[in-house]
Amino acid sequence: MAPTDVRSLVIPKSSMSSGQVSWRSPSNIALVKYWGKFGNQYPRNPSVSFTLSAAYTETTIQYKPREDYKKKLSISFQFDGRSMPTFEQRIEQYLIGLISQFNFLEQFDLDIQTRNSFPHSSGIASSASGMSALALCLCSIEDHFFQTLQEDQAFRTKASMTARLGSGSACRSIYAHAALWGETGAVDGASNEYAVSLESMLHPSFVAYQDAILLVSREEKSVSSSAGHGLMDHHPFASVRYEQANRNLQSALECLQHGDLERFVLLCEQEAMQLHALMMSSSPYYLLIKPNTLAIIQAVQSYRNETGIPICFTLDAGPNVHLLYPKENKDAVENFINDKLVNYCHQGAWIKDEMGLGPLQSL
Prior knowledge:
Number of strands: 14
Structural class: alpha+beta
Helix content: 25-40%
Largest sheet: 8 strands, mixed
CATH architecture of the largest domain: 2-Layer Sandwich
Number of helices: 8
Order of helices and strands: EEEEEEHEHHEEEHHHHEEHEE
């Protein structure tokens, strides 16, 4: 994609107008994790994720021409109809960092309204869905005034790049079904700047894959993901991890392309456990897995051995468990969850989700 000439992204007064744009963008679950970053939100290793469906953020930006240019930005922000000063400050700093790419932001009063389809602190990557929804809105405003992003690929590439600057994993949420982020020779066009779609290479076995999210805990994490990434800078096993992640990436791509479910199961679980092993061997070390997390893992492994159903678990940087399995096993797995696993969930809560079709613009 040719870069937009940001010097041109200033709207003439005669063309200024008020308007509104809304996007719904999903979260995603990483199969091969990225853990450790450098520079301006670049990953130390490439990652692969499934795009979700039911877990999404919906963001609306109302914009109107500004009269007062004393401040760099003029924004108001509400989450679920409530003021959230901490969130607003984060969004403001994010947008300030984007002024060099979206000069027109200083020309508007921005009212940002956002909501999640899932409970806050429910163990779903809300930064991925939230920052991708916001990035999509910004790209729509640019295209409305300048017609610079008329081609779908150009639009999604800039949206992914913009989302990455707010949350690394957010860049993968721009695409349907599955995405890859990070430089690798295994996929054409792969980049540290933005994610790319893997939709065209998916074997039919992985289309409509299911994700049951078991909510073990809703407590705020003791160590944020950003802090965890930072601890990789001096981690004794960092170089070994990055080498292994690249090998696992190649294996994951082969599984997704050829429908190798048995190998996929082992790889996903290995990646999840390695992620938490890195946390436990950091300096300072920390532990995010809970006793009920381990109980679920053991129950899932036993169930798989007994039934032959290719169900597997994966984890984000927290205690909650994602169960991945083919759609044809949906009824059996949901019965297993309700019969055996809900007792390990906080107040019996779990969320039904599946591979999704990506972001959707609201009219």
